[in-house]
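Renewal narrative, Specific Aim 1. Our central claim is that a sequence can be written position by position from structural information alone. The example that follows is taken directly from our test logs and has not been curated for this report. It begins with the structure tokens describing the chain, in the order in which they were read.
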């Protein structure tokens, strides 16, 4: 996947490209192959220089063998989508140019040749009605490679869509560059990105209208069971001017202004801009602004109990020059609060405040990794481990805002996926409660820690891990994240900025896997000769464990007879 040079001529049927460029680059890649197929090119990750414009820094994709071919599309710093471009023939060219700013740009793209209309391309569908379900190809079996599936959802008018993934397991990587699901707030993939997810999670999304688009994109490296999703529709809140909405997500802000609303203020849709004048509407009927949360001049403010993102739309009466007077502005404000997003849009001309209260949340996921390099995530579930094995866990915030910090406030283990009364604290209020826990310094949008597989696993076949995560502005030195461990006496006076939880698991012992494999290997004849298979497996397991650790045998025997001896979690801790 490495691309050490500037540009290349590519002839493979498929390839992943990891590109790193510095200032003043002008690099061309040409993809061509003698095949009666077309090319799909996906830029699943791109990081340009901050605040760069399309005029000075971009990716241009051309439908043919050179930059003289017709322009297919352009990708810039403010592109609010996962760009997917398809050629009309067997050749395609893309050009990356960068400006003079000293900054390392990173891009990840992959392409593959495919036959339009073939059986392999037949996935995704049009979904209509107030509710419904859909799933990835082959679910729950592994999804196929090189698929691009699109589901278009249309609910009844004057409603919005709540999308919930009941089961979700895709290949995990840090920026969701390989296999991913992308959700868009409208009828197409140009409608504004609500979020992009991968790994093992249960994400939820909410649209601002009755239209939503869902995309699944896969490569050829690893395949998992995919997802099962359901959607439902709820009436749009009021009183609100039809098609006048503000939607905030972990990744973006989306503002929809109806023509009738603008006309009531005496303004024309032709004269609109955000704090950054280069950010213009992506549609004009209705007027739609859709942009990454921390771009287009958005102002972020950490208010201690919440994080607020504010942007201003400048308006001018039809035919007049755009000004920045107080009475010609619409202010859009997204407030990220505990497990909800409060969205407010108001105009200073009429002092009429329109509020939209909607449930929303930052997209957060958690995964185990092979080592403290945190480069290779554990891709299978359950996660089988040895007793006292060191486990490496990472919580990731999926957001376009680079100045957010993830702080792990509390992590609790439980044999029950609903985390009932039986729990064990690893971390509580930022303080390590298990003596094997080590937390790592904050790194970008990640919170990391390690711990040893604990004695809890001796007494229960499966253990789940749930972490409460606090998200703060990394520039705020007085935030909850900056305070670290808080003792019981100080806990009540320490408000958090934004808090959510994420769950991973189950974790199981390898010895249980070996016992299960041994059981499965018995033939039917051998099973008939075994008077008590359960007792046989139990004593075989006890003998194996006895060789390595006599204490584990005690725990196993206690578990076997816990109904007779009144065995409890307190006994596990004392043993």
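The sequence written for that structure reads:
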């Amino acid at each position: 996947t490495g691309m050490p040079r500037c540009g290349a001529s590519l002839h493979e049927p498929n390839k992943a490209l990891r590109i790193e460029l510095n200032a003043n680059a002008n690099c061309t890649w040409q993809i061509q192959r003698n095949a009666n197929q077309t090319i799909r090119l996906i830029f699943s990750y791109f990081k340009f220089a901050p605040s760069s414009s399309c005029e000075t820094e971009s990716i241009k994709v051309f439908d043919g063998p050179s930059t003289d071919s017709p322009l297919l599309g352009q990708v810039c710093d403010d592109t609010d989508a996962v760009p997917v471009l398809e050629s009309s023939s067997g050749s395609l060219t893309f050009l990356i140019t960068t400006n003079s700013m000293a900054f390392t740009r990173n891009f990840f793209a992959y392409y593959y040749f495919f036959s339009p209309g073939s059986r392999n391309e037949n996935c995704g569908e049009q979904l209509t009605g107030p509710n419904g379900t859909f799933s990835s190809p082959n679910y729950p079996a592994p999804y196929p490679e090189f698929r691009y599936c699109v589901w278009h959802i249309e609910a009844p008018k004057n409603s919005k869509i709540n999308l919930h993934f009941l089961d979700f397991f895709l290949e995990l990587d840090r920026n969701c560059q390989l296999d991913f699901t992308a959700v868009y707030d409208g009828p197409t993939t140009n409608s504004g990105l609500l979020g992009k997810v991968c790994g093992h999670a249960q994400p939820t999304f909410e649209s601002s209208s009755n239209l939503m688009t869902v995309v699944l994109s896969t490569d050829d490296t690893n395949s998992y069971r995919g997802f099962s999703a359901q959607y439902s529709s709820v009436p749009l809140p009021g009183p609100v001017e039809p098609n006048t909405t503000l939607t905030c997500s972990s990744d973006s802000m989306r503002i929809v202004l109806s023509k009738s609303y603008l006309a009531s203020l005496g303004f024309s849709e032709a004269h609109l801009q955000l704090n950054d004048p280069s950010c213009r509407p992506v549609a004009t009927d209705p007027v739609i602004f859709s942009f990454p949360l921390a771009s287009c001049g958005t102002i972020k403010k950490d208010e201690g109990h919440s994080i607020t993102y504010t942007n201003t739309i400048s308006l001018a009466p039809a035919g007049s020059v755009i000004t920045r007077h107080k009475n010609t502005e619409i202010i859009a404000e997204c407030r990220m609060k505990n497990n909800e997003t409060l969205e407010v849009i108001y105009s200073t001309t009429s002092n009429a405040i329109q509020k939209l209260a909607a449930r929303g949340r930052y997209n957060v996921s958690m995964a185990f990794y092979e080592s403290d390099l945190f480069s290779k995530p554990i891709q299978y579930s359950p996660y089988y481990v040895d007793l006292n094995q060191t486990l490496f866990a990472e919580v990731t915030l999926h957001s376009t805002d680079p100045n957010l910090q993830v702080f792990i406030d509390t992590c609790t283990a439980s044999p029950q996926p609903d985390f009932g009364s039986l729990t064990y604290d690893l971390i509580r209020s930022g303080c390590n409660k298990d003596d094997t826990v080590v937390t790592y310094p904050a790194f970008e949008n990640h919170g990391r820690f390690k711990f040893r597989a604990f004695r809890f696993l001796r007494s229960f076949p499966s253990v789940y891990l749930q972490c409460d995560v606090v998200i703060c502005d990394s520039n705020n030195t007085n935030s909850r994240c900056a305070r670290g461990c808080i003792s019981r006496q100080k806990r009540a006076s320490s408000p958090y900025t934004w808090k959510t939880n994420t769950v991973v698991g189950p974790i199981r012992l390898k010895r249980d896997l070996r016992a299960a494999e041994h059981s499965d290997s018995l033939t039917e004849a051998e099973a008939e000769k075994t008077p008590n298979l359960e007792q046989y497996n139990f004593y075989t397991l006890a003998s194996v464990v006895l060789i390595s650790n006599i204490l584990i045998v005690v725990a196993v025997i206690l578990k076997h007879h816990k109904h007779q001896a009144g065995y409890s979690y307190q006994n596990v801790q004392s043993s």
